[in-house]
Amino acid sequence: MSGGDNGSSKLDVSPYDEAMEALSSLITKRSRADKSNKGDRFDLLFDYLKILELDESISQMKIIHVAGTKGKGSTCTFTEAILRNCGFHTGLFTSPHLIDVRERFRLDGANICEEKFLAYFWWCYDRLKENTGDEIPMPTYFRFLALLAFKIFAAEQVDVAILEVGLGGKFDATNVVQTPVVCGITSLGYDHMEILGNTLGEIAGEKAGIFKLGVPAFTVPQPDEAMRVLEAKASQLHVHLQVAAPLDANLLNGLHLGLDGEHQYLNAGLAVALCSTWLQRTGHLEVNYLQQTTSLPQQFIEGLTTAALQGRAQVVPDRYIESESPGNLVFYLDGAHSPESMEVCAKWFSLAIKDDYQQLNTVSNLVHEHKRVSVESVQMDQHETFKKNSTQILLFNCMSVRDPQLLLPRLMNACASHGVHFKKALFVPNTSVYYKVGSNALPSSDTQVDLSWQLTLQRLWENLIHGQKGSNTKNTDLICEEDINCTEKVLGFVRTARCFLHFRQLSIGSERMSENINLFAFRSL
Ligand SMILES: Nc1ncnc2c1ncn2[C@@H]1O[C@H](COP(=O)(O)OP(=O)(O)OP(=O)(O)O)[C@@H](O)[C@H]1O
Ligand SMILES: [Mg+2]
Ligand SMILES: [Mg+2]
């Protein structure tokens, strides 16, 4: 396989690492908050499509395009799972990834295999390298990934391509699509204001930039300000915009959604509407599923209840400790990073740890299956034991473009209202070295990390605690010793400090922490 012209092949660099190096070279130094990023030469995307000869195939793809502030990845994941269960050959493009960039490209529900990934990667990369220069520069990181997704889905001849917008809508790289089959707008809220605008209306306007003339669209119930803008944009383009109701849990035949958390019923309701419309518009629908309010087709139920997405309300028992003492150390992972999602995430975490504690008491071998029960059904005495014997620790990473003054109080208050108080809060920088960590090795500590932002977060957290009456969480610590400068090391530190086991290779991590996971919470009993 060609390594392109990067010529850096060393004997110890695997072909995959070589591709990752080439990909990293596309990460621009310029900060995302830079205003000139907004729609920065969107027209270039059409040059790239020509270079890659993708125009024709994109126009024939049967696309579902999804924008929104929160719930894009979840909605797309439900949508994919439903259509796959209906027998279609699916392609799914989501962002961000947690550990491996291939998570962003799923074929029939599974990450694209390394071999195919490398083949398509170099096919695109080499062609772009050959045909770009001063006039047309190489595409930036996300643009390249979006182009790669189109290449993969075209070459693999998927029946349906489900595309999650990366940022915004109007100027997103996925918005080169001219004729999607149906569009979806998930919950709107405040995020990326530095690029998308400060009001909900402005944000909605950007997201509605994916609407296309006459192509039907669905959204979830939205605040008035946002809805008005969506409706205005829709009517300009003769888009029939409908509000999809949250999924009625009773339609699942007693099963649970594959993704946890109450907000997922919103996303699932939207996914059902998108799939029904896609089936209808592509001539695959004998029955109009949309009209059915009393039952769902079995394939839909199958898809909704088996859908899976990493790092979203995900519960991961620590794999080193698990075999010796099940349930002793459990990570609860979520990628919430907007005020609204901090709150749903805090609620999910608070309820999940109580459910899990109850199960630990009643089921001997629980940890890999997390069935939720309502919090009301948890006995009070169990609550008390749970509170005494478990510790909740927050591991938080927040990009400096986000406002922790908005995020942290929401998180703390929502947890506190469920009786959950963090014993420690660790604010970690967004460095991580997952894929380079050897089996028993600590990452090397030769890089100096500036922790001033983490110190700011710590101060804010402390102020919040002091302002909170009746809180027993006085000893928030910040781990800021120089040798604990990345998330892996913090995890290692915590494991060791709790006298569980020695530090070993990380079980959870990601290369670009900032975008991928910004909340880890775990307890130890
Ligand atoms: N409908 C929703 N309303 C509020 N918060 C949500 C909703 N759906 C998901 N979330 C929260 O946002 C997190 C991210 O969910 P998801 O990956 O589906 O969204 P996304 O729009 O793809 O986000 P990202 O900006 O990370 O790409 C979830 O873990 C959850 O905390
Ligand atoms: Mg986002
Ligand atoms: Mg996403």
Topology:
Blueprint: H1 15-24, H2 44-51, H3 55-60, E1 63-67, H4 72-85, E2 90-93, E3 105-107, E4 110-111, H5 114-131, H6 141-155, E5 160-164, E6 182-185, H7 193-196, H8 200-207, E7 217-219, H9 224-236, E8 241-243, H10 264-281, H11 298-306, E9 314-317, E10 329-334, H12 339-362, H13 380-389, E11 391-396, H14 404-416, E12 424-427, H15 452-467, H16 487-497, H17 513-516, E13 519-524
Parallel strand pairs: 1-5, 1-6, 2-5, 6-7, 7-8, 11-12
Antiparallel strand pairs: 2-3, 3-4, 9-10, 10-13, 11-13
Short synopsis of the structure:
This protein has 525 residues and is α/β, with parallel strands linked by helices. 38% of the residues lie in helices and 10% in strands.
What is the H-and-E element order?
A: HHHEHEEEHHEEHHEHEHHEEHHEHEHHHE
Q: What Rg, in angstroms, do the CA atoms define?
A: 23 Å
Order of strands across the widest beta sheet? 4-3-2-5-1-6-7-8
Biggest sheet descriptor: 8 strands, mixed
- Class based on secondary structure composition and strand pairing: alpha/beta
Number-wise, the strands total 13
First-to-last CA distance: 50 Å
Shape, principal axes of CA atoms: globular
Helix proportion range: 25-40%
DSSP helix count?
17
The averaged pLDDT comes out at 77
Which ligands occur here? adenosine-5'-triphosphate, magnesium ion
Enumerate the spans where pLDDT stays under 50 for 5 or more consecutive residues.
1-9, 31-37, 362-388, 432-446, 471-486, 493-525
